Amino acid sequence: MAASTVPSTLAVSDSDNTVQEIKPNECQPGQPSLGVVTTTQIPIPSSHDAPKAGRQLRGFAWFIMVVALILSTFLYALDNTVLANVRPSIIDTLGRIDLLPYVSITYPLGEVGSSPLWGKLNNLFNNKILFLIALAVFEIGSAVIGSARSMEAVIVGRAIAGFGGSGIYMGTMNIVSAMTTPTERQLYLNHIGIAWSLGTILGPIIGGAFADSSATWRWAFYINIVVAAFGGPTCVFLVPPVLPPAANTRTVWERIKQVDYVGEILFLGGVLVLVMILGSGGAVYSWTSGQMIGLYAAAPVIWILFYVQQRFEIFTVDRIFPLQLAGDWQTVSLFFWAALAIANNVVTIYSLPLLFQFAFNDSALRAAVWTLPFIAALLASGGPLGPIFPKFPVYWIWFAAAGSLMLIGGGLLTTINYSTSRGAIVGYTVIQGLGCGPVVQLPFTVGQAKVARSEAGAVTGFLTCAQMGGLVLSLGIATTVFLNLTTNDIAAILPDQPLSLIQAAINGDSSSFFEQLDPDIRQQIVEIIAHNIGKVFYLNVAGSGFGLVTALLMKRERLQLRVEE
């Protein structure tokens, strides 16, 4: 989001305020076709009131500010997966294993459920202040978890931290977008995506390291407060005010009244039902139980009510979800890509450590090491895109190429089993990473460049909601598919064991269970787990295939990203 009162406000297009539409089948002499041949000028919304682009901070101060912002995103991502290896320790300390699924689902509930609210607030108020508030809320949640004396307190703390984490990510995206020019924005947005991926991967390692040390699992959450002691003051002193246009035309009270509280409540209710279905189905309740049937019935009702309320702006003058963007196919295609790129990352990062820990008997640390080639591929393909994209900003080609690589990598990953070598698995993930890297944050660059400055914040909120939704749904579906398939297959060879004990063992909450079994039975279980992890990657195949189709349907246009100095 650009700020009309800050020197770093963006001009989103060239001086003629156009994008170039590239039409196929009309080849220019001497030019390669690539389906991209002639150009015509298409007007896009004007932003004549925006000052010239440029950064207020440069040099070392700019570097420190960017590090502080990205570090905050790293902490937010870390908490997505930090529970993986600390759950057994939390249960040992606080008991109540029956509440464990709710500990897992409250963080994503807080982050996804509050995403539209943070997006709307960033369109109305100073983004810097909102970021600092979100950071404070996140740290309060971390403190509640770390000091918890009951499982209920952990659940409440996770919800608070998720709420704050959503605001951190939204604020980081808005501030970085406002303080960079279109030509450099993709580079810095890629840094955010890489920090998120690293945090997601390192979460289980850092959590497990604390859980196994004298510091105990509590420091897996207290560490957030320690790191924020650097990031918070840095942002206070270095980040300039980032004011949306509404801040100059309405009073604070008018903007407070403008927030769509009814829409936020309905959206949060819809997310709650979906998260409950994914988190409770097959784990807490049988899929055919009365509780689950009630959730199935409630989900469409709540989402229909939300759509009607947003569509006709009932009890609001400014709907919380940017529904106007959902009417444009090009923006919707970017929404899908924002979701599926994150989903491909999450499914890969979630599944690989399980495979190496169970199939190869690796420690949590060693299993995480084998995910580093995937991250290296993300860096190798995503990092250079920053300076390259402005020179060749025909975005449909980037999405199509990424979709093709992701489809190939995902397809190969579906073939893995107990006998698949480490080298082959790493090779498959590298292909997957090369596809994911360029497009994790590319929808933001494209979406912001295609709208007027006044709509840039709405686009950021729209796409951030897609990312968080993709994260939660893909992780929930992947976990549900793997857990239910594996539980049923293991139960077939261990019919006398309760399903709850088998699921706890798969989750890592009762690992000694497998160690007590006969070696031949353990071997069969390992083969079952490896085979079902391969099935999880069909989610990536489906998403990548759909993404490739949408890429081929995108406009053949060249974005004009040059900014007048």
Note the gap between the termini: 19 Å
Uncertain parts: 1-53
- Basic shape: globular
Spatial arrangement of strands, main beta sheet = 2-1-3
Strand content: under 5%
Major beta sheet, specifics?
3 strands, antiparallel
Write down the secondary-structure element order: EEHHHHHHHHHHHHHHHHHHHHHHHE
SS elements, strand count: 3
Instruction: Name the quaternary structure.
Output: single chain
Q: Averaging pLDDT over every residue, what do you get?
A: 82
Tally of alpha and pi helices: 23
Roughly how many Å is the radius of gyration? 24 Å
* Category by helix and strand content: mainly alpha
Helix content: 55-70%
Question: Brief description of this entry?
Answer:
The chain has 565 residues and is mostly helical. It is built from 23 helices and three strands.
Itemize the secondary structure elements and their pairings:
Blueprint: E1 18-23, E2 38-43, H1 59-81, H2 87-94, H3 100-113, H4 115-124, H5 127-146, H6 151-178, H7 182-211, H8 219-238, H9 252-258, H10 261-280, H11 290-311, H12 329-359, H13 364-369, H14 372-382, H15 385-388, H16 395-413, H17 422-436, H18 442-449, H19 453-493, H20 499-507, H21 512-515, H22 519-536, H23 538-552, E3 557-558
Antiparallel strand pairs: 1-2, 1-3
